Amino acid sequence: MMNLNTEESLSKRQLNSLEKHLLNDFQHGFPLVSRPYKKIADELGTTEETVIDTLNRLQQTGYVSRVGAVFRANSIGASTLAAMALPEEELEQVAELVNEYSEVNHNYQREHHYNLWFVLTASDEHTLNAILDDIEHRTGHAVMYLPMIEDFHIDLGFDLDFDSGY
Amino acid sequence: MDMKVKYRLPSLPKQAELDEVDQALITLIQRGLPLSPTPYADIGKKLELDETEVMQRIQKLKDDNVIKRFGVVVRHHELGYKANAMTVWNIPDERVTELGACMGQFDFVTLCYRRPRRLPEWPYNLFTMIHGKDREDVLANIEQLAKRCNLEPAEHKVLFSTRRFKQRGAIYR
Lengths: 166, 173
Description:
The complex is a heterodimer.
Chain A: H1 7-12, H2 17-24, H3 36-44, H4 48-60, E1 64-71, E2 78-84, H5 88-99, E3 104-110, E4 116-122, H6 125-139, E5 144-146, E6 150-151
Antiparallel strand pairs in A: 2-4, 2-5, 3-4
Helix pairs in contact in A: 3-4
Chain B: H1 20-29, H2 39-47, H3 51-63, E1 67-74, E2 83-90, H4 96-103, E3 109-114, E4 126-132, H5 135-148, E5 155-167
Helix pairs in contact in B: 2-3
């Protein structure tokens, strides 16, 4: 049913129906059964092999980050959001320095006086604090850290609206 | 996008009590399940567990709210949702829980956290991440949010992202 063999062809064309279903329908409640991809294949009227191949390709092209668990912040390990207010000419350099830490998993420039925003996740609070100190020491700029106090969001994934002009 | 009705608040994470096997399991699955016909059995082999126990332990992590969501994790940006704005709100402390619960119901809100204020420079205590296809889409979502949750009087700021330096799943150990 599919004739694309390269990553390139996937990125250059519209997603097919199977890909859309795989991207949208299994963001939560992924089957906890011996052969989950077979169960998904049965639901979508295709084969286990096709599901596995398609997920592999979606992962290679970067549409899918992974198939797996999203952990609740601070339920294991320790994490915090952190922000820095940097002069424009230092921003890129500091962003690169921050990226060097494997504990940093998100790092964005945002439109605000606080213009660099990143999320740090480590095994424990002690490690987290040591990294924040290290970043301050190495950059000479303060880091404002904003750990989560309360989570109001039930994560059911993100409904991809494929119909309106994707 | 329409509001999804959700019936309960998530229970707050107490620091989960995880044994060594759970920790090893988390280390293995945090980068994703193997894309093989029997992913749980394959994980089990590495941990010397049978596949049933792997599935039971993952179910328990879900039940205990350590795993918030289990499934396909997509990248919004690559899928055409090019804009995201961290929208931060200054909400009176006594109303944070009520308004946070309201905001957390919308499916274009992908995070909704209470965080500490850092006065005087940072008065905002409620953080929402809002995704959309472009800026207008994001702003329309924020407007809808403000209207539906009666947030119009609340001081807020919309921090669009202009550059992504890094994005990947967290790695805990």
